[in-house]
Amino acid sequence: MQINNHFNKITTIKSDIKTIPVSNINERKIFAIAAYNAGKKRIALAQIAAQNDGKNPQKWDDIKNYLEDAGAFEDKVQEIIGYVEKITKNEQEFAKKSPSDKTAKNKKPLKILSNTNDNGHWVTKDGHPVFIGDKNA
Question: Could you tell me if 78 and 125 lie in one domain?
Fold first, then answer.
């Protein structure tokens, strides 16, 4: 992710605005997500404001409180924070192990009988596909 690289080292966003490197990879990922929504400049300005106020510019929980100082209106601040929370929550959900059958791709495909009528539908019963046809067809 290219945005991630802007918070990996000191990066000049504008002649007088530079990012502050975030050493923790998990924190840096959050900064990249925030910058995707808010812009690199706004996140860098929030880092600077947090640092000037004695807070840790490498911690999202510290700099998110300085987004308004960085030029975001209150509704944009809430959008940025909500976006970060939503994306990180989704990432955690997708990281969970899937209960799906990892060997399914190695199994032979099922043969579908050509003598079934089109008046029905497929369902899964006890883990197996079953065609439910209309008896009147």
Answer: no
- Mapped onto helix, strand or coil, the DSSP state of residue 18 is strand
90 and 113 in a single domain? The answer is no
Do 95 and 86 meet the contact criterion of CB atoms below 8 Å apart? no
Tens of pLDDT along the chain (137 residues)? 577 778 888 888 888 899 999 999 999 999 999 999 999 999 999 999 999 999 999 999 999 999 999 999 999 999 999 999 999 998 887 777 666 677 777 777 776 665 555 677 778 888 788 777 765 55
Q: Which residue segment(s) compose the domain that 115 sits in?
A: 104-133
Q: Rounded to whole angstroms, how far apart are CA atoms 135 and 120?
A: 9
Same domain, 89 and 109: no
Query: For the chain, how many structural domains are there in total?
Result: 2
Report how far residue 100's alpha carbon sits from residue 132's, in angstroms, rounded to the nearest whole number.
24
Q: Is the dihedral of CA 117, 122, 125, 130 positive or negative?
A: positive
pTM for the full predicted model? 0.67
